Amino acid sequence: MTTIIAVTACPSGVAHTYMAAEALERSAKAKGWQCKVETQGSIGLENELTAEEVAAADLVILTKDIGIKFEERFKGKTVVRIGISDAVKRADAIMDKIEAHLAQLA
Fold first, then answer.
1. Is 18 left (phi over 0), alpha (psi -120 to 50) or beta?
2. What positions does the domain PTS EIIB type-2 occupy (predicted)?
């Protein structure tokens, strides 16, 4: 089973951070994938990814609108960087592209 992890953060740290997390989780689960999203919002880190989850992930999605805290933990992983608004509005299309990429690697 494909395992995706993600970290979402937006400049204001409020609505888009959580809307993006929800959209990515929903879209990944629709493909039958496991997905966990850490949010880095105005109230700090929530749903923090563990070292084991990072190690087990097939792919990492990071939003690129502001810096992601502790990004070094993803070194050596395949990382996809997306805009926060794309995560909210185009999560299904993003997952389709990821699926095509993973199929090429298989």
1. alpha
2. 4-100
Per-residue pLDDT of 52-77, as tens digits, reads 999 999 999 999 999 999 999 999 99
Record the tokens describing residue 76, joined without a space: 């050596």
Per-residue model confidence as pLDDT tens digits over 23-40: 999 999 999 999 999 999
d(CA 51, CA 41): 20
Superfamily (CATH H level) for 10-21+31-105: Response regulator (3.40.50.2300)
pTM confidence score = 0.95
35 catalytically annotated: no
Segment holding 61, helix H or strand E: strand 59-63
